[in-house]
Amino acid sequence: MVRSKPLSLILVALLALPSMSYPQAVNPVSFDVVYLYDVDEGTETFCSLSSPNQPIPVPEKIQAAASLTVTAVSGSPFLNVAVGDQLSVTNSDGTPYRLSVVARASASSITVAGLDSTGVLYTAITLTNASFTYRDLACGTGINDGVIDVSRIRAKVFLGYISVSSLGSGNLRMRIQCRTAPGVPWVQVLPALTPPAVTATYYGWATTVLGVFSGTTIDGYGQCRVGFSLSGTDTGADDLVSVSISGIS
Questions:
Q1: Per-residue DSSP letters for 72-126?
Q2: How many structural domains are present in the chain?
Q3: Distance CA 23, CA 187 (A)
Q4: pLDDT of residue 129
Q5: Per-residue pLDDT tens digits for 171-190
Q6: Which residue range(s) make up the domain with 87?
Q7: What is the value of pTM for the model shown?
């Protein structure tokens, strides 16, 4: 007769086996916080586009005839679109465009800006029966405005890029704050503040100077936000700023 081994012996044998580890999946993440946002004079403002995971679909088609004016093929595709919103457009031939709304004439006509693959602003685009989704831009000066959820992103890096600067004087300024969770005080992480310093400092670019800043890895925080302001005189023309965040999830 074959005797079965006691359960306790089986458990001991299993515990003695070497533990198995499995590699953790690494998924690149990259999205725009703001895209070709026109910074204006006044109080520092915190802005962010809505979740990149939930772009808003629009059923109506759009068109453009070698221009930066985009119109409806039919209907009112821009009924809920506002200045500063980001459009992800797919032309009828499959060509993608990433655009920012710089002016809204009506629910059927807008003016856009966008960057080509080399980072140069479009002078005109042609769209035929194109489809699009969009992300809302929300801005404010309050303690909970401009919040970006970064809790699921590791090795976070912020990249800022100024495409157009038309200041009459002063500087276009940006800074980044982060916090571990909602309700916890914000900490300025870029430019870095050395404790006990608490007075805000900024990345700044002088009149008509284009600039780039890249924030090093920012981990240990669940939320971040970007503050924008102008210290000086705005000529009234656009000062277009883009900020993106990348990392792994």
A1: ESSS-TTTT--TT-EEEEE-TTS-EEEEEEEEEEETTEEEEEEB-TTSPBPS-EE
A2: 2
A3: 33
A4: 98
A5: 788 899 999 999 999 999 88
A6: 56-135
A7: 0.84
